[in-house]
Design brief:
mainly beta, 2 domains, two-stranded antiparallel ribbon, 7-stranded antiparallel beta sheet, about 200 residues, 15 strands
C-alpha cells in the first residue's frame, strides 16, 4: 500500500480534510492543494468537510499526449546553502543592536534595527564564531524548495522528488492548463505549476 500521508497538508485545520487522506468515488486521495495523489480503494466515501476531489480531477485530469517513462531527471541539488548563515551553520549576534533587533529612542519609541532588519542576527556569513543557525539546525544547508522547468513550465522540486519516490512512474504529460499529470503502478497524481 502506498503511504499517502506525505502528500497531505501538515499545517491545516483537521476539520477541512487536507491533513489526512480521504476516500471519494472509489479512490483514496491525499492533497495539500498543490499536489494530489490518488490510489484505488474499496473504502466508503468520506463524510464531513472534505475537498471535492471528483470535481478537481474532472477539471484537471485532461491528458493531452502522454510521454511514456518516468519524469525527466532534475539536475538540481537536493540541499542548498542556508541563506540565513550563508552556509556556515553559525550565526552571529548583530553588533548594532546587541541581538535585540530593535532600539528604544529617547522618546521611548521602539524601532527595528536598521542593520539586521529586526532579526537580531549579524550579516549572513559573519557567524563563524557564533551560535548554531536555527534555520538549518547548524548544518549550513537546507532542502532545496525551488522549482525546475519541464517543457517550459516550472514545478516545485519537493513535489517532483516525492513523485519519484512512488512505485514505477510509467507516463506523464502536461495539460493545456500547465498541470503535470503522472501515472504509475496503482496511482495517479497531478501537480500544479509554480506561479513564480
Amino acid at each position: 500500500m502506498i503511504n499517502l500521508k506525505p502528500f497531505c497538508e501538515a499545517h491545516v485545520a483537521r476539520d477541512y480534510g487536507f491533513s489526512e487522506p480521504f476516500a471519494a468515488g472509489g479512490y483514496l486521495y491525499a492533497t495539500d492543494r498543490s499536489i494530489c495523489v490518488r490510489v484505488p480503494t474499496d473504502l466508503p466515501d468520506a463524510t464531513g468537510r472534505v475537498p471535492n476531489a471528483r470535481e478537481m480531477w474532472a477539471n484537471y485530469w485532461q491528458p493531452t499526449t502522454w510521454t511514456d517513462g518516468p519524469l525527466p531527471a532534475v539536475t538540481t541539488p537536493a540541499m542548498v546553502p542556508c541563506e540565513t548563515c550563508a552556509g556556515t551553520g553559525k550565526v552571529a549576534t548583530c553588533e548594532a543592536c546587541d541581538g535585540q533587533g530593535w532600539f528604544i529612542t529617547p522618546d521611548a519609541a521602539a524601532h527595528a534595527c536598521r542593520e539586521c532588519g529586526g532579526t537580531g542576527l549579524g550579516k549572513p556569513g559573519s557567524g563563524e564564531e557564533g551560535e548554531a543557525c536555527d534555520a538549518c539546525d547548524g548544518k549550513g544547508q537546507v532542502p532545496n524548495t525551488g522549482s525546475v522547468e519541464i517543457n517550459g513550465v516550472r514545478y516545485s522540486i519537493p513535489y517532483l522528488e516525492a513523485l519519484r519516490a512512488l512505485p514505477n512512474p510509467r507516463a506523464w504529460c502536461i495539460t493545456d492548463d500547465r498541470v503535470l499529470l503522472v501515472r504509475g503502478d496503482g496511482w495517479e497524481a497531478l501537480v500544479m505549476y509554480n506561479y513564480a
